[in-house]
Amino acid sequence: MSDKKTFYITTPIYYPSGKLQLGNTYTTVLADAAARYHRLLDEDVFFLTGTDEHGEKIQKKANEAGTSEIEYLDKMIKDIKDLWSLMGISYDKFIRTTDEGHEKAVQKIFQQLLDQGDIYKGQYEGWYSVSDEEYFTESQLAEVYRDENGKMIGGKAPSGHEVEKIQEESYFFKMSKYADWLVDYYKSHPDFVQPHARMNEMLQNFILPGLEDLAVTRTSSNWGVPVPGDECHVIYVWIDALANYITALGYDSADDSLLKKFWPANVQLVGKEIVRFHIIYWPIMLHALGLELPKEIIGHGWLVMKDGKMSKSKGNVIYPEDLTARYGLDAVRYYLLRSMPFGNDGVFSPEDFVSRVNFDLANDLGNLLNRTVAMINKYEDGVIPAFTTGKTDFDEDLDLVVEKQITEYNQHLGSVHTADALEAVWGVVRRANKYIDETEPWVLAKKSGEDENAKAALQSVLAHLAGALRAVAAMLQPVMTEAPQQMFAQLGLEYPEKGVSLVNLAIDQVPAGTKVVAKGEPIFPRLDVEEEVAYIASLVSKDTKGKGRAVKEAAKQGAKEQEVSEEIQHKDLIEYDDFDKVEILAAKITAAEFVEKSKKLIKFTLDDGSDKPRQILSGIRQWYPEPEVLLGKTVAIVANMAPRKMAGELSEGMILSAEKNGIVTVSVLPEVIEPGSGIE
C-alpha cells in the first residue's frame, strides 16, 4: 500500500448538447492545473471529468439529428475529448453516465434510498426547464409570465431558458428530512463551501425558507436510467449525474479499491449556476448513503464578456480552439487562470487578452529569459556560474523575495487560487527584472577584468538570474505545458520526464557549469495590438446565432458609449495644484461586508498604514456579489476626502476603480506596495 498523500479532484460532468466554449473550458483547465500541481508535490492524484448523457434534451437533440441517442452522444463525446486533448487536460478518468457500470450503481443507490424511506412516490405539478433539466418554483424564476387575469402561464429560469408546466407521477427524495443536519454541517465545517457567500446564498434562498423535497424521476422521457421494478420512471438527471463522483471510483462494485483510496474528494469544482445541486442535494445524498462528504466544494464564477455571460443565444461566444490555434496553448491557459479572480466573475475582452500576452508573457517573462541567456553567453561564455550570494547589495533581497513568493505560490495554488498563485510567480519575475537594473551586469563586466570583486559579483548576478528563472519555470508547470520545458532548454537544464518537483523548490538549484543555448529564441513573441484585437473581435462575430436579438442592445450600448465619450471630452482640465490636493494612499482590505440598508453598498475596513482602521463604503455590490474576494488585496484610496454618512454608516474616503462598458473593477495594487504608501 502506497504511503503517498492522495488528492482527488473533480469537474462537473458536461452536458453534451452543444459545442463547449471558453467559459466551459475554464473549469477543466482549473482542475487540470490543480491536478498537475499535486502530482509535482509527489502526491497520488486522481482527476475525474466526464459527460452527463441522459435527459429529455439529449433525446430531442438526437431526434433532430435523425440518429439514435448513443450515436449522437458518441460524436459529441469525441469532440469534447479532442478539446481536452488540445487543452492539455491530464484527466485520469473520463466518465460517461451511459457507462454500464455507472447505470447499475445508480440503480443500486436509488434502491437503497427507497428501502431506507428516503425516497417516496408522489405527484409532481410545477414548472420545468428542459434545457436546464431542472424543476423550479415560481419564486425561483427570473421572470414570470401572466395572463390578463394575473394567472401564471409560464416564465424563464435564471439561465434564461423557458419553463413549461408539467404534471406527472414522480418519486421524491425527502430533502426536508435532512435540512437541519445540513445547516449544522455548514456551521461545523465553515470551509466546506468556497467562497463562503455561496453557502450563505443557499441558506437564505433555499434551506432556511423551508427545503422542499426533490422530484427525482420522470415519466415523460425514457432516455435515462430506469427505476428498478418501475421502469416507466427514469431516474432524474441530478441523482444520476451527481453519483458519478463515486461510481467513477467503483462505488458498490466488485472493485471499490479506488473509492477506499481517494474518497472523500479533496476538491470538487463547479460553476456557480449548479452550486445548489452540489452543496444541498449532493451532501444530503452522500449522508443518506453513509458516506463522508467532500472536503471542499468550490463554486467558481463565470468568464463573461462585456455584455454578460458567454452565450450562443447572444452571439458572444469565444471558442478555445480558435485562440489556441493562433496564440498557442500556454497563452490561453495562462489567460484563463490569471484573469479569473477566485469565486468572482472574470471579464474577457480582446484588449485584455492581448495585453496579458504582451506585458506579462512577452515583456516581463520573455525579456527576463532573453536578457539572462544573452548575458551568460556574452560574459561567461555561455556557462552558468556556481551559485553564491552576498556578492552584491541586492543578492539577499532577491533571495528573500524568491523564498517568500514560493511560499505564497504554494499557499495559493494549494487552495486553487490560481490568479493569486500566478501573481506570486510574477513577483519573482518583476523582482528579477529589477535586480538586473540594480546590479547593472554590463558595468560589472567592464570592471571584472581587473577587479576580482566585480567578477565575483557578476557571476553571482548571473547565477541568481538563472536560479530565479528555474524557479519560475518550475512554478509555471501546472499552468503551462510547453513554456517551462522551453525555459529549461534555453537555460541548458535537463527537464525530467515527469516534470520538475516542487518539493523544497529554491533559487540555488541550478548546477554550476550548466551551458545555456548559444542563442535564445523568444518563447512569447510580442503581438501587434491593433491587428490581434481586431482578430479576436472577429472570432466573437463568427457566432451569429442570436445576434439579431442583440442588435438593439448593441445600438443602445453604442449610444451610451458615445454619451460617455462626449462627456469625457467636455470635462474641464485641471492644474497640477488641483491634483496635488488629492492624497492617494495604498491600503489593504481587511474586512468586507454588505451594508444592510443598501442594495448597492459594500462596507470595507482597511489598513492604511496608520494605527487606526479606516472604513470606506463603495457602491460596487453589483460587480462584487462576494466581496470577500477582495480580502487581503491592496487597493488605492483617496485618503483626504471629507467623511460622509451613507445608509447610516460613515465612509472615510474612496476606493479607486476602473469602469468601462458598464463593468466596474477595483484597482488592485501589487502586493509589494505597503499600506500607507503614497501614490502619485
TrEMBL record:
* Enzyme superclass (EC): ligase
Task: Give start and end of each TRNA-binding domain.
Answer: 578-680
Pfam families given in the database record = Anticodon_3, tRNA-synt_1g, tRNA_bind
Q: Which GO terms describe its molecular function?
A: methionine-tRNA ligase activity
Organism superkingdom:
Bacteria
- Motif 'KMSKS' region is found at 309-313
| Catalytic activities | tRNA(Met) + L-methionine + ATP = L-methionyl-tRNA(Met) + AMP + diphosphate
* Record InterPro entries: Anticodon_Met, Met-tRNA-synth_bsu_C, Met-tRNA_synth, Met-tRNA_synth_2, Methionyl/Leucyl_tRNA_Synth, MetRS_core, NA-bd_OB-fold, Rossmann-like_a/b/a_fold
Do you know which PROSITE patterns this protein is assigned to?
A: TRBD (PS50886)
**What keywords does the record list, in alphabetical order?**
Aminoacyl-tRNA synthetase, ATP-binding, Cytoplasm, Ligase, Nucleotide-binding, Protein biosynthesis, RNA-binding, tRNA-binding
Q: What is its EC number?
A: 6.1.1.10
The listed locations are: Cytoplasm
Gene3D superfamilies, from UniProt? 2.170.220.10, HUPs (3.40.50.620), Isoleucyl-tRNA Synthetase, Domain 1 (1.10.730.10), Nucleic acid-binding proteins (2.40.50.140)
Its annotated function is as follows: Is required not only for elongation of protein synthesis but also for the initiation of all mRNA translation through initiator tRNA(fMet) aminoacylation.
Describe its assembly: Homodimer.
Q: Which family does it belong to?
A: Belongs to the class-I aminoacyl-tRNA synthetase family. MetG type 2B subfamily.
What protein does this entry describe? Methionine--tRNA ligase
Q: Which organism is it from?
A: Fructobacillus evanidus
